[in-house]
Amino acid sequence: MKTIVRAGIALGAGKPLKRVYVGLQDSKIDVISHEELTSYEDAELDIGGWDRIISPGFITLHTYLSLYPFRFRIFTAKENANDLISTFSTNDSYYFSLLGAYHLLKQGVTTVGFSGPHLDIMARAVSEVGLRPIIVVPVGCGNSPPDWEREFRTLFSRWSHKGANNVILKVCDQAQLRDVLELARENEVAVLIDNTVTITDDLDFNQIIGLGGGSRLDLDIIKKKGLKLSFTPSYEVSKFPLSEFKPSVSLDLVPSFDLRQEVSYSATRLLLTVEEAFNSMTSWGYSQLKINSGVLNTGYIADLVVFQYSEPPSFPLDFSSPYETFLYSSYSLETVIVNGEPVLDGGVPLNVGLKDVEEGLRRLEEIDRKSSERTRSVEKG
């Protein structure tokens, strides 16, 4: 499929570009030019305009996707996450994950890492929405499968292939760290290290990503060994300069569930510059997983988002402050492209319909009904 995109500002190309044409072909970025693309006169899709910003799609390395409908009550401790998960059927996990992926799509996220129960089913929901799933198999965590190694190998054979590792590991238990790293080394995948687990100087593995920011006690070792971080800005304490770690962003289960809002916190709290905050949800995140995306350059995977700035409150484009415009201005997401294929156009998701959303909401009501019945039963007892 050939697609041409026009944009008043293009971000992610090393420096902001004004008034550019971007040509996509065979899932890759084929050409970027200030001149009209005469070779794309036969393009199947012609989108954008000079009042648009084009950017690489966003990535979040870790979240609890199936808990998305319950994020407010979990955040305020009205519900226990593990208690909720124990009530989920496979279909519940599918539809709740679909609702979460639908939300992320509407925010401009194109790749999402997630953990939780029924990982295979969750991955199918993410794919159905049109996003790229990154399955995070937990080890020693509250929601870990009993045989985590078997779970990993099964999912890895199903969802990963040469050049695309869509299954990674997460470890929450210090005692199991070395076993996890050995399996990760064997399969050349990244490992997320919970902030309760300490990275020691004797570990010889470079695809370690520490979860957390300034709260980690092993930052000196992470820096010394050239390892990376993935942090949740609204949860983290300050650490200056955080940019030396080139962190990615994990949404965890923040109430807003808005990646751009999260990275704006990192800039306003002076953890990162505005440009670095932009990189944290694009190029830095993708590079940590060795995915050839997150950059607006020829040869990269065409994961792109297009925002419209034609009227207030997003209007106008400020060409002298493009990153600030992008992060802080209200916006209208117009188009999302994953692997060169549109999955949202005109602000409308193309793969998920109202019936899917309604089924997810129906299942949420059913969970709430069962929860109320259990509560009444306990009170009577």
UniProtKB/TrEMBL annotation:
Hydrolase recorded as keyword = yes
Q: Name one GO molecular function term.
A: hydrolase activity, acting on carbon-nitrogen (but not peptide) bonds
Q: Which domain of life is it from?
A: Archaea
Which UniProt keywords are given for this protein, alphabetically ordered? Answer: Hydrolase
Which SUPFAM superfamilies does the annotation name?
Composite domain of metallo-dependent hydrolases, Metallo-dependent hydrolases
Q: What is this protein called?
A: Amidohydrolase
Mind giving the lineage of the organism this protein is from? Archaea, Thermoproteota, Thermoprotei, Sulfolobales, Sulfolobaceae
